[in-house]
Every structure is written in structure tokens, then in C-alpha cells.
Amino acid sequence: MLWESHAIMQYLADTTPDQRLYPSGPRERADVNRWLFWSAYHLSPAVRDLYWERVIKVMLGRGAADPEVIARAEEQVRELSGVLERQLRGREWICGPALTLADLAIAAPFGVWESAQLPIVRDSHLGEWFARMRALEAWRRTEEP
């Protein structure tokens, strides 16, 4: 039994002949791995906190959103989105000219962009990248009608 989405993605890529989402070169793979860890350790927790406070707590009737948690998470998301904004400047995808596991892993938390009210500017390199992600057939098949 394998758990953790990034480990599952890596395993599937490693066991799929001729896949192009997870590079085989050590330097390129290290770059993708860097972003996978960054997503899991930094981005996802910050987005999770905003989603919990603004969406899940309301759905579960767990009281009002905690303004201190929201302020801290919004600051983290702004800082982290700045990291992505700089990385995406002059690039179509996070790790270079092609879509990789890094793009898929980082796009997943942004799936709650609207509902969690993520403090990110749509008219940015990050916003353009996320629009490209949402335009992918694989992404469109996961969204509700």
C-alpha cells in the first residue's frame, strides 16, 4: 500500500514506459523533486489553513473563521505565490518547457482558489500558469459540471 500523492505520482511515472512528466536525468528530476517537496511542505499547509477556516468550518458548523489563522495563512500564501511568480517569469511550466509532476502537484492546492479566497492576483504569471493547468483535458475531467 502506497500513500502520499507525490509518492504515488512518482511511482506511476517510474512504472509507465515513455512517460514525460517525471524526467529521467538526475538534475531535471532533482528540480521536479524540489518543487514537489516545496508544495507538500510549504504551499499545501498554507492553502489548507485558508480552506479550513473559510470553507470546511462553515460546512461543519464549527464556528467562525479564526482571523489570526487567516492572517497568517494569507501572508504565507502571498509569500509562496511570489516564489512561484518569480519561477514562472518567462516560463510556461514550473520546471521548464514541459509539463511535469511539479505542475500537477502545485496546481492541486490551487484548485480551491476561489472558495478559499486565496490572495493571489489572477493577472500574473501564476494566474496565467493556473489557467493553462485548468485548460488541460485531464484537469477539466476532474471538475464538476
Question: Could you give a short description of this structure?
Answer:
The chain has 145 residues and is an all-alpha fold.
Structure characterization notes:
The protein is mainly alpha-helical. Helix 2 (26-60) runs antiparallel to helix 3. It has helices at residues 5-14, 26-60, 67-88, 101-110, 125-135, 137-140. Helices cover 63% and strands 0% of the residues. It has six helices and no strands.
List the helices and strands and how they pair.
Elements: H1 5-14, H2 26-60, H3 67-88, H4 101-110, H5 125-135, H6 137-140
Helix pairs in contact: 2-3, 2-4
Order of helices and strands: HHHHHH
For the record, the CATH architecture stands as Up-down Bundle
What is the average per-residue confidence, as pLDDT, rounded to a whole number?
Answer: 94
Spatial extent as radius of gyration: 16 Å
Q: Which secondary-structure class do the elements indicate? A: mainly alpha
Which range best describes the helical content: under 10%, 10-25%, 25-40%, 40-55%, 55-70% or over 70%? 55-70%
Provide the domain count.
1
**CATH secondary-structure class:** Mainly Alpha
Contiguous uncertain segments of 5+ residues? none
- Count all strands and give the number: 0
The 3D shape can be described as globular
How much of the polypeptide forms β-strand, as a percent range?
A: under 5%
Predict the CATH topology. Glutathione S-transferase Yfyf (Class Pi), Chain A, domain 2
Number of helical stretches of at least 4 residues? 6
Note the main sheet: none
C-alpha end-to-end distance: 32 Å
Oligomer: single chain
